[in-house]
Specification:
CATH superfamily: Zn-dependent exopeptidases
Shape: elongated
Helix content: 25-40%
Bound molecules: zinc ion
Radius of gyration: 25 Å
Strand content: 15-25%
CATH architecture: 3-Layer(aba) Sandwich
Structural class: alpha/beta
Largest sheet: 6 strands, mixed
Amino acid sequence: MAFKIALSPEDRSTNAYHPQALYQGRSTNEQEQMRRCADLLEQELLRCGFEVKNMQYGNMYDRVKDGNAWGADLYIALHTNGFDGTVAGTRVHCYPSEGSRKIGKLIQDRIAPLSPGTSERLVESTGLYELKATRMPAVLPEFGFHDNLAEAQWLIDNMEAIAAETAKAVCDYFGVAYVAAPEEKPTTGPESPLDGVSFRLQALAGGKVIREWEIN
Ligand SMILES: [Zn+2]
């Protein structure tokens, strides 16, 4: 039976990313980016054989209720952080339980080296509702600080990698083999092996070249 993963991306669109960090040429917010993250992570986890509940509705109370009712094996609340614009780095929050610490450290160890900021640590918390009210191991990664320009742009530009690394951490947690996305075929370069090769065609008569063509 497949392991069940509940995803709870930030529900507030009022958490603005740094105004100069652009997504598709415009400013963005935590809800939009964490929904992107949840969609990418869902694809990663489905490919690796997990069942996924991608909860992009309601608030954390609705989601904890549904995650518990569904019987999730792991609950991941997806977030980015905010402070005063000067702080950056990855901080994964976990509950002080064996399973939550384990998944927390796996995600922290994969994302922290990638994020530009260095103010990072695994944070044990008993106060966060999604960590304490969930019946299964739960984790709340703050992948980076969205009010820091460099880190906000990194978050936007690297969401595929963030989702892939998080999926690898989930695979490690359950002892499941990670299945990489199929490589995309290159869209540039020669259409056929003979492209870029030219031929010289010669018509001979009596050992003499009577006509010549150049074929590209
Ligand atoms: Zn958040």
